[in-house]
Write a structure and sequence with these properties.
- By secondary structure, the protein is of the alpha/beta class.
- Strand 10 (241-243) and strand 11 form a beta hairpin.
- The relative contact order is 0.12.
- The protein binds one RNA strand through strand 8, strand 12, helix 6, helix 9 and helix 18.
RNA sequence: GGCCGUUUAGCUCAGCUGGUUAGAGCACCCCGCUUACAUCGGGGAGGUCGGGGGUUCGAGUCCCUCAGCGGCCACCA
């Protein structure tokens, strides 16, 4: 054995050994209780970043439970990550001086597919290098044909039950990315702006009503002015009409309780085409819709002479005209939150658009009791409250995206007009297979929706979609219920733990719960374990511009995967952000070396053929006995901690025991005996040490395995 | 505006259900290359556990309150 543990000499060898021995290839095994984690599929559009290294939490649980006799399955896969990948890809295109407009849909799709495929291969190797005990024989991709089939079945089931509908609504639209988003994908930023108060003259010339707004340009599309029904100031005006300034169109003054009498002037302009609140008011009062801003972010023909202006130019022009014509009462500084595209930071335009929506309420109603009764447990506990709060606030979920990259929505619109049945659903029907005719009127004149699904719609199905497709061995079945009956599925579903970052609690975890319950009738997982963000050594967020980004693979090269893994755990708290520094990795590298040298010491003792001298065996017995006692105590605390998902405490205990008790204390006391080849002492030490290695293995799989192979000539996973 | 987290040694942080002289890693000082390891060993310095109040035999740990930092949510146009 070398004096130092050299990760490079061992890592590849050990990875190969695990693969050959198939330790982590799960099978249906009725004698064992399964322990299942579905890997949150990384976005297949880049390399692994240090955040992905947090998968180590899952690896620890998998390996620990493997040693505990569970049938473990840790299922890998990759996410096509629709919009995210599309965004990265478009940037690449631009770099090459090309644009998406240069290619047709199929060619584009193939290009992204190739791009993603390359990344998938890279990521797999990187995950392996981190030592993750994933079952690669079962790896899935969100665009696998059999996964897509299941996603389609889910969509159809939702559609058939009326839980998904096509609707014209004001959606969050990014005019730069040219797609809509769900509410959860909009990021709000404080922005300094103005609050303008505008004079709307009453048609009967009896005066005016003052309206306050942050978006004066949208007044061109106003179709009403609203006041609170209980506002005494305006009671007598309700029902009258005003002349829309600059436009001259007559619009009514209406009463709606959504209006807060205490804000601004208590009177609101209503622009149903460009504000969700206004849209809802318009629905209640059957107001018309005048769209004045187009999907390219510019004023359209309804905006009269302003046509062609960008939103900000439009605003400036309208304000200046209002001023000129004496309609502007005041202009005050005002700071408010503005919705931004979470990717490109362009201001989101609320625009009326027909999209597919998932009705949230019925789905949420099934999720909430599970959380409330702790049928699904969330660690740390505080996130349970957060999730429940969210669930109460969710609106219907827009799942249509206007991008090519993704799963195309299997919805078709019949072009035949006038047929009653077709008209009921505006001609829309859903079909898993490419249809040959409209199911309502048998016409063959129909076309498929151009849009693709929100990625979270498919990844929200990931736990059951993966297990179903594996259960049927790729065969496409007719319904979700048929998949549900397969024994493989029944054995592995629901999964045991969902471990992921708390930042996607609402976007992902909530959707998996909703869709899992809907499609399978059972929760997709019993436990949710959440981790935080990886930050730099000073607690700063990593970013390219700050230059503090840590590349996990670089650290693996330099110090070994064990060191990186342990550095993410040591002296941290589960669920909080983790600060990462090279110093910490070095410290853990040193610890790995300590583990190695304890083994080396025992190994040297075992292979020492020196004659044993006579000893004070009484005191030795006491020391050995104490060692065993202390170790038993450690074992208990260790598994207690892990049962509570306190991965840090379990590791800190191991660190302290290994270094400061076993090495610094016991080994020093027993040193002479070891050198003398005292069999009793050595046997005790070996027993404790091998058992300790198994406890450490989940955290530092390489050094523990390497030292076991050196001493025992077999894997830790072959020791009972 | 609401909710949540956080404030412990120079730095970054652990401290589970309240209980003996409050811990770790890094940094620092002194000594040591002794046949497991200098990626080491031995020794040491360093904290009124954010402020105030309370409960208790006993509080970093529970309650109240104030303050700083961070995050999440909200249709006040």
């Amino acid at each position: 054995m070398d004096k130092k543990f050299k990760p490079k000499d061992w890592e590849d060898k050990i990875i190969k050994l695990w693969e050959e021995k198939k330790y982590f290839q799960a099978k249906v095994n009725k004698d064992k209780e399964p322990f299942v984690i579905i890997l949150p599929p990384p976005n297949a559009n880049g390399s692994l970043h240090v955040g992905h290294a947090m998968y180590v939490y899952e690896d620890i649980l998998i390996r620990y439970n493997k040693f505990n006799g569970r049938e473990v399955l840790w299922l890998p896969g990759e996410d096509h990550a629709g919009f995210e990948t599309w965004y990265v890809f478009e940037k690449e295109l631009k770099k090459q001086g090309k644009s998406k407009l240069d290619f047709d849909r199929d060619v584009l799709y193939q290009m992204v597919y190739d791009f993603v495929n390359e990344k998938r291969g890279i990521m797999r190797n990187q995950l392996k290098r981190l030592g993750f005990a994933l079952d690669w024989s079962k790896s899935k991709f969100t665009l696998d044909e059999d996964i897509v089939h299941i996603v389609y079945l889910t969509f159809k089931k939702l559609f058939d039950q009326g839980l998904v509908y096509r609707g014209l609504r004001v959606v969050n639209f990014c005019v730069s990315c040219q797609t809509s988003f769900s509410d959860l994908e909009v990021e709000y930023q404080e922005e300094k702006s103005k609050l303008w108060t505008i004079k709307y003259l009453l048609s009967d010339k009896s005066g005016y009503i003052a309206v306050a707004t942050t978006r004066p340009e949208t007044m061109i599309g106003d179709t009403a002015v609203a006041v609170n029904p209980d506002d005494s100031r305006y009671k007598k005006l309700i029902g009258k009409t005003v002349k829309l300034p600059l436009v001259g169109r007559e619009i009514p003054i209406i009463a709606d309780s959504a209006v807060d009498p205490n804000f601004g002037t208590g009177a609101v302009k209503v622009t149903p085409a460009h504000s969700d609140v206004d849209w809802q008011i318009a629905q209640r009062h059957k107001l018309p819709l005048v769209q004045i801003i187009d999907f390219d972010g510019r004023a359209n023909e309804n905006a009269l002479s302003y046509k062609g202006l960008s939103v900000s130019e439009f605003r400036t022009a309208v304000v200046s005209d209002l001023k000129k014509k004496g309609y502007l009462i005041s202009e005050k500084d005002y700071t408010h939150r503005v919705g931004k595209c979470y990717k490109c930071k362009t201001t989101i335009e609320p625009l009326a658009k027909e999209q597919w929506f998932v009705k949230i309420k019925p789905l949420v109603d099934r999720v909430k009791p599970l959380l409330e009764k702790d049928k699904v447990k969330i660690y740390p506990k505080r996130f349970k409250t957060q999730l429940l709060n969210w669930l109460d606030k969710l609106y219907d979920w827009n799942i249509s995206r206007q991008i090519v990259w993704g799963i195309r929505i299997p919805a078709y619109q019949c072009q035949v007009k006038g047929n009653q049945e077709c008209q009921q659903k505006d001609g829309w029907f859903v079909s898993i297979e490419t249809p040959s005719q409209c199911p309502y009127c048998s016409s063959s004149d129909f076309s498929q929706d151009e849009d693709t699904f929100d990625t979270w719609f498919s990844s929200g199905q990931w736990p059951y979609a993966t297990l179903m497709s594996l259960a049927s061995e790729g065969k496409n079945l007719q319904s979700l219920d048929e998949y549900k009956r397969l024994s493989f599925f029944q054995y592995f579903y629901p999964t045991t733990v969902m471990e992921t970052g708390f930042d996607i609690l609402s976007r992902w975890v909530s959707r998996m719960l909703m869709l899992g319950l809907f499609s399978v009738g059972k929760t997709p997982f019993y436990n949710v374990l959440l981790h935080g963000l990886v930050r730099d050594q000073y607690g700063q967020k990593m970013s390219k511009s700050k230059g503090n980004v840590i590349d996990p693979l670089e650290l693996v090269d330099k110090y070994g995967a064990d060191a990186l893994r342990a550095a993410l755990i040591f002296n941290t708290k589960v669920g909080s952000d983790v600060n990462m520094s090279e110093d910490k990795v070095v410290a853990m590298r040193n610890f790995a070396n300590k583990v190695w040298n304890i083994g080396r010491f025992i190994y040297l003792g075992l292979n020492n053929d020196k004659e044993a001298d006579s000893f004070e065996t009484d005191s030795l017995d006491d020391i050995v006995e104490n060692l065993h006692k202390e170790f038993q105590d450690l074992k208990k605390k260790y598994s207690d901690s892990l049962k509570k998902y306190n991965l840090t405490m379990a590791f800190d205990l191991l660190y302290d025991f290994t270094w400061h008790r076993l090495a610094d204390y016991y080994l020093e006391k027993l040193k002479d005996a070891v050198w003398q080849g005292d069999e009793k002492v050595l046997a005790s030490l070996k027993t404790v040490y091998l058992s300790l290695l198994q406890m450490l293995n989940p955290y530092m799989p390489f050094v523990t395995e390497a030292v076991c192979l050196s001493i025992e000539n077999r894997s830790l996973y072959d020791i009972d």
